[in-house]
Amino acid sequence: MKTVEDPPIFRLLTEVGIIDQLVSNLLERNLPDGLKISQFTVLNHLVRLGGEWSPLRLANAFQVTKGAMTNTIQRLEKRGLVRVKGDPEDGRGKLVSITKKGKAMRTRCVDSVGPLIAALTDEISEDELSRTLPVLEKLRSHLDTHRP
Q1: Torsion of CA 101, 107, 113, 118, to 10 degrees
Q2: How many helices and strands, by DSSP H and E, does the chain display?
Q3: Residue of 22, 46, 24 whose CA lies nearest to 107
Q4: DSSP secondary structure string, 32-96?
Q5: Is the Cβ–Cβ distance between 41 and 62 less than 8 Å?
Q6: What are the C-alpha distances in Å from 126 to residues 31, 112, 113?
C-alpha cells in the first residue's frame, strides 16, 4: 500500500479537522441537560467575549446561516440561557446576551467535560500545549482574517 506524503500544512489541517470531529462528538455526548454543541459554543462565545451580539454577527462569527443561528438562539432563550432584546439603534434588530443562568450552564458544561480533558493532560504536557498554542492561534487568526 502506497502512502502519500502530503505537505505539512495539509497534514496539519487534516489533523485539525479530525480533532474537531472527535472533540465535537465527545462534547455533545457529555454536555448536561441535552445541550447541543451549537448551543454550548454560543454560550462559550458569549462568556469569552461578553457584550451584546446581533444574531447576524453571531452567525458570521460561527459561519452559519442567520436562520440556523436564530434557531440556536431561540432554543437558548427558551431555556433562559440568553436574553434577546430589541436593538435601540436598529428598530428591527435584536441583541443577544448571556444570562446568569447561561453562565452557570456554561460552567456546568466545562465541568462535565473536565475529567475527559484531564485525561488529555496525562498524555500531552502543559509545556507541549504551551508550545503548540501560538501556532494554532496564528493559523486561526490567518483563516479568520481571510474568510471568503
Answers
A1: -170
A2: 6, 2
A3: 46
A4: GGG--HHHHHHHHHHHHH-S-B-HHHHHHHHT--HHHHHHHHHHHHHTTSEEEEEETTEEEEEEE
A5: yes
A6: 25, 21, 18
What is the pLDDT tens value at each position of the chain, 148 positions in all? Answer: 667 789 999 999 999 999 999 988 988 899 999 999 999 999 999 999 999 999 999 999 999 999 999 999 999 999 999 999 999 988 889 999 999 999 999 999 999 988 888 888 889 998 999 999 999 999 999 998 998 7
**Of 28, 75, 36, the residue nearest 55 (C-alpha):** 75
CB half-sphere exposure, 98, CA atoms < 13 A? 22
Cell of 5: 506524503
Nine-digit cell string for 44 = 462559550
Set of cell numbers at residue 136: 494554532
